[in-house]
Each structure stands twice: as C-alpha cells, then as structure tokens.
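[scheduler] slot 2 assigned
[scheduler] job type: sequence-to-structure, two independent chains
[scheduler] chain ordering preserved from manifest
[runner] begin chain α
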Amino acid sequence: MLSLANFIVRRAKFVLFGFIGLIALSSVWGFQVFGNLQGGGYDDPNSDSATVSELLGTEFALDPAEVIVLVDLPGDANELAANGAPKYFELVTELSDHLAKIDGVISVDNYYSLGSPASLVSTDGKLVYVLVDLQNGISQSVPTALIIDEFTGDYLGAEVHIAGFGAVTKAITETIEQDLIRAEIIAIPIVLLLLLFVFGSLVAAGLPLFVGGLAIVGSFFVVWGVSEFTDVSIFAVNLITGLGLGLGIDYSLLVVNRFREERAAGNSVEESTVATITTAGKTVIFSGLTVALVMISMAFFPQYFLQSFALAGFTVVTLAVIGAAIVIPAQLVLLGDKVDSIRIFKRKLVPSDKGIWEKIARFTMRRPLPILFVTILGLSGMFSLSTDAVFGQVDDRVLPKDSPASVASNLLRERFDGRASSPIEILVQGSDEAINDYIVLVQEQPDIARVAIVPTAEDTAWVRI
C-alpha cells in the first residue's frame, strides 16, 4: 500500500484525470445499456419447466407467439354482416396485415384465420386474440416496441391492447427507467443535505457523489459490454445505482475523515495522504473485497437474474473501491485543506472521540450481554413477521395497475375462461391407461378448468396435455 500511496501522491493529476477520462469515454457506450437489458431470467434453465419448454420446441415444433394483441370489438365477434360474413372480419384482418408488415414479424394469426376457436374469444364474445410470432435470434424489443407504440389504443373503432412477455418486459424496463429518474430527483437533494451535515463543507460533500457517479457510469459500461454477448437482467441497474451511491458515501467518509485527522496532527498534505491510503484506504479495500465476494457468490445460481446481480454488484463495488481508495486521495493531494472549503458549520470538522457515538459505544461495552440479548430478540421478532410472506414470479403484477401491459394482462385473466390460449403444458410418457389415469387425477385438482390431450402430427414419444 505504501508504494501505491507514494505513486498517487507523485502522479495525482495523472491518476485523477486518467480515471475520469476512462469513465467519460465508457459513458458513450454505457448509457446504451438500457436497450440491451432483459426483463426475464427468473427461471432455472435446469428445471422441469425449462425442459418442457425445450421439448415443446424440439419434439412438437412449437414456437409460441411472443406478442399477444387483444382486440376489443364494438360488438360480438361472431355477429354476422348482411353478406353473411363475420361483421368484424375485415377489421381484424386489416390489423393483422399491418402487423405482418413490421420488420421482425414472421407470422400473424387471429381469431378468424384460425377458424374461430372458443379459446381465442372472451366469455362475453367481444375480445379476440391476434397472435404475433417474432423472428428468433434477433432483438425482439424493437418490433415489440413498434407494435406497442403504433397500435395500442383505438383502431377503426376497436380498442387494441398489447400483452405477452415482450410487452410486459418493455413496460418493466420503462417503469424502472422512470423510477430511477424519479428516485434520483428525490434522493439526490436529500442525500446532498445529509452529506453537507455529515462532511461539514460543500467541497467534501461532493466527493461521495463524485465517487458514486463514476462507479455507476463505469458499471453501466461493463454491463453493456456483457449484455452484447449474453442476457442481463434490467434489475442490475437498480443494484448499480443503489450500491454505487451508498458505497461512495460510506467509503468517502472513511477516507476524508482520516485525512482530516492526519492534517490536524500537523502532517503535510502529502504525508496525510500517504497515511490515509495506508490506513483508511486499506480498510476500504478489505471492506469492498468482502462485499464483492458476497455479490460474486450469486453467479453460482443458474438464473441469469441473479447472475446479473453478481455482475452488477461486483463491478460497482470494485469501481467504488478504486474511486475511494485511489481517486479521492489524488483529489486530496490537489485540494489539500481546500477540501473543507465552503463550510456549512463553524464547528471543527476533524472527527472527535467525544459525543453521542462515544457514549453509545461505551454503554454497549459495559453491558454486552443485555445488548446482545435485546438485539437478538428484536431481530427474531422482525424475522417472525416475514414467515407469512408469499413470494411469486416477476410478471405484469409488478407494474402499476394503470400500465397498458398490466391492463392487457388483467383482461386475459378476467375475460377468458381458463386461459385456454396460454395453458399449463404437461408432457408425459407411458401407457394409454397410465396417461388417462393421470389426466383424471389432474382434472380433480381445484381451480382446474379443463384437461385434454393435444393432438399432434409430429413423430414423438411424448404426449402433450
């Protein structure tokens, strides 16, 4: 650490502006990360459900529609016109033709083109399906966004809603982006006020925001690079912004306070910086290493949702440590005592061994067992409150109720009987008698509307239920 400290003191400008330059350059690509992130990744690729999904594609050549367009007609879908044809046939067909012209769309099927099956019309007869199949192997977010932006709302007197995995993913991504902006608008002023109170000067209070901002932007670049080759969850952004700002404040406080203590002891700026790096800097590095190892442990889970947390957490912690242990000391060399410029309070800014925290520490050390007992009791009580928690999948229900994707998904739940268009798929092998017994057993389960064997022309040993 001493060699590193001496290098930072001698090359402070190079270290500071070199790091800022690299982060600034990375921002050119880093802010493109939002278009690459995915809304899924919650399923175990080694689970039975993933195996079934794979078999449906390989054994039954099944390629489910990625986008579900729901058309809420002015009248009954089976109502006949004067010529004897369905009254709304032309409306739905015209919509399907427009959808088919979008780049990335392979095929479009609708209620009428599929022979008016009961599973594709709502119980009130007015809401019908249009199924849009997108090209595999491309970024499906682009055609999905075009469909949502162009067709949601009124269409020739009918009301169009867009559902499906692609629509929900797009809505979740947009909601997270809006929430991040809203959180920053609210949180940053509050955090700045707290920083002014804790650090005591405007210049010192800006250092944690500096570290956090650089760590966040740099992490966006790393995540963008990885997302070019594999799937990364959109929720990685939330972790980056939260950890980046939090660790920036935590680590900066350690470094700045240590520097102030050294200066108060009569050491020069250079000597104070070296002492800061070899003491507080070492603390920051070991603390960051602990957090980074915890984050990287999530890479061992099979879901890329959690693997994305490992990538995002490890990256932002690493950059926050570099910023606090290397870049801030370089700033301190250049600023010197000006780090305490634009003071908010007249009190001494050097940390004191006396005060409320000293009293709390001494109180705790005098009564370790009672404090331990009360703490364990309190944590146990909090844990007991979580025993009734019910966890579920991340789907449209995480969206605001007025979100178009949420509204469309609720229409599927409320106006279609048994969700026959998107049923639970079961693949079985065995004798006819055993399969029939299994069907009867499933049919007897509560909340099951129908159970049936799906006929197929494919040559396979599997039976699709």
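[runner] end chain α
[runner] begin chain β
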Amino acid sequence: VFCVCAARDMGVRRLMEFICNVAPNPGELAPVETIDGKFIKMDINGPTSIFVFQTSIEQHVGEVTYFKVISGILKEGMDLINTTKNSKERISQIYCVAGKTRMKVSEMQAGDIGATVKLKDVKHNHTLCDKDAEISFPPLKYPAPRYTTAIKAVNESDEEKMGEYIHKLAEEDPTYIIEYSKELKQILLHGQGEYHINTLKWYFDNVYKIDIQFLKPKIPYRETITKIAAGDYRHRKQSGGSGQFGEVHLVIEPFVEGMPVPEMYKIDGKEMKISLRGTDVTELSWGGKLVFCNCVVGGSIDARFLPAILKGIMEKMEEGPLTGSYARDIRVCVYDGKMHPVDSNEISFRLAGRNAFSAAFKIAGPKILEPIYDVEVLVPSDRLGDVMGDLQGRRALIVGMSSEKGFEKILAKVPLKEMNKYSTSLSSITQGRAMFKLKFSNYEKVPAEVQEELLKAYEAEQVED
C-alpha cells in the first residue's frame, strides 16, 4: 500500500518508480480480447485501434476524450471508424496528459494513453479503429451502486439546469446513475457511497452555484389481495341530452400462476356459477399479472364495452387504493352489469369498472408488499457480531454464512426500506474494512405494524394535498 498526496507531492515519486520497475511493458501484456472473440496484440505494427475510457467537459475547451492506444500508431489527422456507433471520426489533435497539463504530440503508439478534443459522437467505452479493421472492445464493467438518494433543486426554476448538469457529471463518472421514477415521482441518484454522492453536491455548490437537496428515496411498494371479494358500481349522469350510464358487477381474487379456470364463487354465503367466455392476460411492467376474465352472459354488457372496463381497472392497478402504489397478481371476473341503449358509452363503463374494482379491492384482504433484496456482506471476523446485530435490527433474515478471501461472508434477505444509508453505517461499524453488494430478490408482505404506519402516512399525505 502506497500513501500518496499529489497536491503536496508526497510519495508520488516512489509510486512512479514502483510502477516503472514492477509493472509490465505494454508489449509484454496479454492480447486484448474483442467482443467477437478476436485477440488484438498490443503491437505498433498492427491496425490502429483505440479504446475510449473517459470523457470530460472543460470550460473553453468542450468535451475532452481520454483513450488508450491498443494497437498500431495513432497520428494527427487520421480518420477512424467508431465501431460502437458506426460513424466516422477525425483525430485532429493528440495530447499527452499529466493532470491538468496537456502537451501536444504528433503521434502515439500501442500502449500509450492520451487525449483528444472535438470528436463528434464519442463516449466512454467506445472503440475507434482503421476502417478495415472492424475491432470492437468490450465495455468496462463498473461496480453496482451501493447508495441511493433522491435529489431535488431547492428552487423549482433550477430543475432544468440541475438535470442538465447531473447528466454531464454522469457522463464524466459513469458510476453515477441517474433515473426518474415515474412511480415514485422522484429523481433518483445512485452512487458508490455517501462521500461519492457528496462530491456531486460539492460541484453544484461550488461550480454550478445551484442549491440542491438530498431526500430520502421513497420505496416502490406493491399492493395485492388475499381473498375473494365482489364489487359492483352503477355510473349514471344526466345533464340534458344524452347522458352516461354503465353498471358493472365483478369478482376479484389473488392470482397465482397455474391456478385453474374459475367455475364457481361463493360470495356472502351464496354460490355463484361462472361461465368463462374469454381471458385477457396483461403482463404488468412493474411485475406480476392482471388476468381479466369475460364471464358476461345474456348480453347484459356489450362486448365492445369490455376494453373500457379493463382500462378503468388498469387505472386503479396503477394507483392502488391503499397507498397509491402499483397493484399486482389479481384475477378479475366481470360476470354481470347493465347498459342503456342510448346513454351507455366507453367512458361510463370505464368509470363503472374502476369504481367496482376499487370497492372490491378494499374488502379483499388487501396487503402491501415490500421489495426484498439479497445482501452479501464481506466483513472482518472481529466485526462479525456487530454487523450481524446491525442486520438483524434492519429486519434481515440471515440465510447463510461462510468464509471467503480472509473475510466472513454473510448472506441475508433485507427489506429495501431498511437499507437506507447502509453503506455509511457499515463503514462506521467496521472502520471501512467491510464490503457489501445487493440485488433485488422478490416482493413479500409487510408486517402488520409496518402496513399500519404506511397507511397512516399515506392518509396524512392525502390530507396535505
């Protein structure tokens, strides 16, 4: 381990001497494998190929592209093909870079690292090569994010500028991942840790002069039901001329893959026979399914109104009755209803279907589901007990333990709600000696006390709005 301070020139010379004496010459490195399985030797006599590993935007200069010459000789004025974008690029200038100092050179050889400017459409992980070489190197693999926060501009008028600058920073540092969650109505920023995220805030405070704030990210809960329930609704509106009329009767039940086709339901002590005439299965983009069964007999509802009923149900699936979260894994059987020869239309049945579904959902044993993540922690043995205790305090289920690379490995299933700022907590407990990674596993029902808290919080939000 080398302790180095570049700002004060401490330890830098020793590090550089070590690299020169120990690290291999570029010509001694193993050939680089391309995406299509070819091997490119780092040889000045081969076809010219460069790999772009970094881009940055500098004031008065524009976009600066950093690259490594993998093979051949790169010269000023060369025309290369961007095999990632299938476009042509001209290397007008080449620089040898040492920190902020750039020295102009006329050429670079295999193994050299340099920079260029004014390329049209080149980003990190792109490959440029001779037009006849057809070389494409695999992209760099960046570590998965370990810390997530919501980000918002203090002044609404700065939202657009904030989005522009965030994407610029993400282009320079691909370990920043930006996404807008339509479901949560938040801009989510993913990074490697709290310090990494605070670095971005430093840029906004000191470079871009925009006030931003970090908020706790909302949790993408799901809603479902646990028992069979029936619901009906009559929509009637008359205001002169043709009005609106539609009545829908339906039954809902939890859907499980492979469950049999419904034939009979028992509602309020009465048996009700069902005659299935058609099924529409919707794969929900947020996970799970909605199964819509047409069980209408006797023409009580015209078939042309069924898509409108399904549309109304989907509207409530996108905004569940409990907390406004997405609903999933429900089978709906529309078995009866009424229509009017003049006043019935698609809007009437869309509203009737939506309200009938909402009424049935509320009495079908509704439950909130929370996302569960597989968490893997590598921790020094002397801190194992502390980390285990912290995980159990986060409602974790420990599923396995083993030893790996001199560390103790803990495998656990933890609700996403409890993983907020876990990287900071783990670093504090272990003095920065532990590592972890997490991956989405499944959705599970929340405990009763947690569901009650969520319902109260949602009701309070609705009152404020």
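[runner] end chain β
[qc] chain β: Residues 223-365 form a domain with the Ribosomal Protein S5; domain 2 fold (CATH 3.30.230.10).
[scheduler] slot 2 released
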